[in-house]
Amino acid sequence: MGRGQIVAVLQVGGEFSTDDDGRMSYYGGEAHAMHVKSDWTFKMFKHEISSTLNNLKLDSYVFKYFLPRNDKILISISNDKDLRRMVDFHAESETTYIYVMKKADNRLKSLIPVSGTPAGSALVVATPDGSKRQKICASWENAITGVGQVFEGSKEFRDALHKYAIAHRFHYRFVKNDSSRVTAECTDEGCAWRIHASKSHAKEFAIKKVSGAHTCESETIKSHRLASQKWVASVIKEKIRDSPNYRPRDIANDLHREYGLSLNYSQAWRGKAIAQKELYSSHEEACNQLPWFCQRIVETNPGSVATLEALEDSKFRFFVAFHASLHGFEHGCRPLLFLDVISVRSNKHWKLLAATSVDGEGDIFPVALSVVDDESQENWHWFLEQLKASLPALGEVTFISNETKPERWSDAFFKGSRLGQYTCNVSETIAEWIPSRYELSVVQLVDTIRCNLMEMMYTRRESSNAWAEVLTPSANQKLQEQMNKALTLNVVCSTGNDGNSHVFEVCDDSVNVVNINTWECTCRKWQLSGIPCSHAIAVFDRTERCPLDYCDKCFTTEYYRLTYAMSINPIPDVLVPTVAGDLSHGAALHLSPILTRRQVGRPKEKPADPRIAIKRAVRCSRCKGYGHNKATCKVPITA
After folding, report:
1. 344 and 351 Cβ atoms separated by less than 8 Å
2. pLDDT value at position 596?
3. What are 512's strand-pairing partners?
4. Which domain of life is it from (predicted)?
């Protein structure tokens, strides 16, 4: 390797375990290769890692490595000096392993797992006796407690029995197995363990009898019967969701380490296939409902826009803007649109692109959103095109995003008008609306947001009915604060060229010039906020004008009520799609069938099942018969 440069292998999504001698081993996850140069800064190093890992945001990650010939202590990389030391230490090494890990919780005194651990799962921590199985497996030892234990049904009992057998490392077979009774016994001839459960008079499924004690536990379960395909799928499903490239060989190694189960490659592969089918078949089915869903949005909410565009590789883009949102933005909101991307915690297939405005109270007002597969420039361009086509011809609108360059952060250099609004927490708000316990389809995701929007608009419309002031409560409070400040100011009138007095000097710690015709003050607070500053209010007092007449209309109660004048209507049959032939195309509906081109190259095939061997028929070269060869041919040789 060239001087000042090393080859680094990035390890992401796996987990560590510690042996009895303190040596650490890394299992699972994904690996990526990259070069690291000694003249890099730590910022350049992070940028290259992010680029290698598909633009992964690294704010909540740390980077660690082992010193050569030392796999007991992880060394951190957190600044330029740490990076240079790492390159120097491994200058003679062929490769260097860098572990990209979630920031640790200070309360954890043992081994910390890296990124990829699903929320709510058990942490992988080395136990004092060196056991390789997880705590979760140990907790299954009490899945069966004894006679009288109650279950919801036979299925729940069978699941508990399965976990119990894995934890105690024995095999069993069913003697009786139906919905009303289950009897199982140990398969070991020398073991008398037997269990029976059935429905009771209270319609509860309970254990009625447990006979004998186990004498056949083994450290490793060599038989494959306990590791059924569905069970393997249920265990690895969350890992597959986070790491789609989870390899069957790693699956087999992880299950052996964590549960003591020995799986071959084919078992691990079939378990992964079932997990992928469970994860993505429902996703594909929901995607096929999108044309129907677009139609129902337009039918139940006339004036709404729903656009679906099919892409290659079974991908698509979905845009929706409800009529109530478009009407509210046009007639009552501040002329602002915040552009933001929202990551869906429960569904990592999609991202939401959102355009959000702000009402007269300073609360967020979602206008439109789009469901896309990633935050690419192409998807943003498509989203803005759909947004432009959905909105009527408005006046000047200010767009704000988290990609504004630094020189535009200051009001002094910002060309648009924010009207006192600098941030928008739409990501947090919509993220709170979306449940994180289970994965939603695209239809369910959008309809969940629609339901929350419907409730939000109704609640705000009802609360505004009690307002008696000209301005909204928050705007009225801001105006009162400026009016109190204006009491101590001194106003000097100056005459314009046309003989009308409309320009005034106002003195406090400095001299500010107020032009009541153009609604401007040299302090710029009036122009920036849309509410008169204290200098302007001092002029209004001098000239007997009403400050309410000089507030931006978006802060009035009238405009606030116009913002929420329309309602978002329910879609009652959202989970019951109609037949595709019944769909009719509305004026604002753009449906495209979700069809894709055949990809280049040979289609991927499932690996052959090792249990099925297709044999070629044997044919005799002498008699031309099948089922034998020339050496075993019994047909006599004729002269």
Report:
1. yes
2. 41
3. 506
4. Eukaryota
* Tokens describing residue 597: 């081109």
- Is-contact 15 122, C-beta < 8 A? no
CB distance 250 to 28 below 8 Å: yes
Q: Which segments within 435-553 are labelled E, that is strand? A: 490-494, 503-507, 511-515, 520-521
**How would residue 342 be classed by pLDDT, with cut points 50, 70 and 90?**
confident
Q: CB under 8 Å to 526, separation ≥6 — which residues?
A: 519, 520, 532, 533, 535, 536
Q: Both ends of the chain: CA-CA distance in Å?
A: 74
- pTM score, whole prediction: 0.51
Distances (CA, A) of 137 to 172, 184, 257: 18, 21, 11
d(CA 312, CA 376): 15
Confidence of residue 383 (pLDDT cuts 50, 70, 90): very high
Task: Round to whole Å and give the CA distance between 497 and 146.
Answer: 99
For the chain, percent helix, then strand, then coil, each to nearest 5? 35, 20, 45
Side chain identity, residue 296: R
Token output for 156: 């729940």
- Cα(477)–Cα(260) distance, rounded to whole angstroms? 66
Query: 26-46: buried (b, 16+ CB within 10 Å) or exposed (e) per residue?
Result: bebbbeeebebeeebebeebb
In this structure, what DSSP letter does residue 636 have? P
- Identify the pLDDT of residue 604: 52
Write the DSSP symbol of residue 294: H
Q: Which two tokens stand for residue 540?
A: 């209004």
User: CA dist 106 to 110, 114, 115, 128, Å?
Assistant: 10, 14, 16, 21
Q: How far is CA 26 from CA 61, 77, 243, in A?
A: 17, 18, 16
Which comes out higher in pLDDT, residue 86 or 574?
A: 86
Q: Which of 389, 332, 388 is nearest to 357 (CA)?
A: 332
**What does the H/E/C string look like for 231-278?**
HHHHHHHHHHHHCCCCCHHHHHHHHHHHHCECCCHHHHHHHHHHHHHH
Residues in a beta bridge with 138: none
Element at 96 (helix H, strand E)? strand 96-102
Cβ of 469: how many Cβ atoms within 10 Å? 12
Highest mean pLDDT pick, 255-264, 387-396, 494-503, 579-588: 387-396
What whole-number distance in Å separates Cα of residue 341 and Cα of residue 379? 11
Residues forming a β-bridge with 589: 306
Task: Compute the half-sphere exposure of residue 240: CA atoms within 13 Å on the CB side of its CA.
Answer: 21
Mean pLDDT computed over 391-401: 80
Q: How far apart are CA 192 and CA 211, in angstroms?
A: 7
Angle between helices 80-89 and 42-52 (to 10 degrees): 70
Question: Which value, to the nearest 10 degrees, does the dihedral of the CA atoms of residues 188, 268, 276, 438 take?
Answer: 50
H-run or E-run covering 167: helix 154-168
Name the token pair of 284. 């594909």
CA 617/CA 628 separation, integer angstroms: 9
Q: For residue 223, report the phi and psi dihedrals to the nearest 5 degrees.
A: -75, 155
Separation in Å, CA 55 to CA 58, 183, 184, 351: 9, 53, 52, 14
Give the count of beta carbons closer than 10 Å to the beta carbon of residue 230.
Answer: 12
* Secondary structure (3-state) at 65: strand
Q: How big is the chain by its Cα radius of gyration, in Å?
A: 34
| Alpha-carbon torsion angle 449, 455, 458, 463, nearest 10 | -120
